[in-house]
Hints:
Blueprint: H1 23-43, H2 69-95, H3 101-116, E1 119-124, E2 136-139, H4 145-153, E3 158-162, H5 169-177, E4 181-183, H6 188-199, E5 208-209, H7 228-235, E6 240-246, H8 248-251, E7 263-269, H9 283-295
Parallel strand pairs: 1-7, 2-5, 2-6, 3-4, 3-5
Antiparallel strand pairs: 6-7
Amino acid sequence: MSFDATLSHDRDWDGGQFAGAPHRELAQKMLPSFLTFGVELASVGRMQSSVSAEQQHTLGAGESPSRGWRVSLNRLVWRAHLFIAGSLVVWAERLRPDHGYGHRIFSASARLMNRIVGIRVEVTGMEKLDPKQAYVFTPNHRSHADISALMAALPTSRYAAKRELFDEPVLGTAMRAVGMIPIDRENPQVAKRTLEEACAKLGKTISLVIFPEGTRAPEGQMLPFKGGAFVLAIEHQVPVVPVAIHNTAYVMPAHGYLTILGGRVVVEILDPIPTTGLTLEARHELKAHVLKALAQSLRPEDGGVADRRDLGSFAGHAFGVHATSQPTQR
């Protein structure tokens, strides 16, 4: 990318709001998360009972189609991970800014959390990447588990995330501290300007992860792609890399209130698509190229059209979870 050599200052990612904030202000921001975490501890045993497959379409966000001690434990572990890792990241970046400690903590804690909750992440295709080259990664998006899987696969990348996540007292502060990029999905012009300002602080070997669908897709579908990732890649003449994430929709279903069944996830790095010499007029063609690559790599249940028996079986879930349905053997 035609960026500066390094992140100029991870602490100043939010335009200076984080840099120099007094410890007392930070503690005040964290207090709501202490209270939320306490509520989780008190209520973790009160899980919803399992329902039949015919009833699952009536479930709302906060209800779960699975139950068991592992679901309860996984929910607690996920919340604890966000709180503990977020707090450690904030203090690491305050005490030793610009050393990368915060980002390493985030990535290492994501890998540890995956193991604890029973998510087995496998990564393929890393040999296609040049460690000295910056990329724009464009993964499909079906589940919150996509984030933790990608952090295990691409530990040095920065992420563009919806602005609402940055309102969380601890998580939002931690995300800003390590250079994550808040995207206002309601205002495309503001979102584009935010990305441009962020890219000005990134180095020539720092890559970006942008979900082109913008939000999690429904089961078996892929949402229309937004253009921001492709415009950015063309403007800075860096390759676009489609990333096919397999099985996260089963491992951590959407709208299940942090229901984590566990299981096998494959993060597949597809062939980089060069943008050298492309102009903005080619952005729609580039978008179509990425969409086709993902569709031809993903199974139907992940939003694609491919028969991926070469990946092996995705059957099974974390021990102790009682699920109403099992994934198809493929």
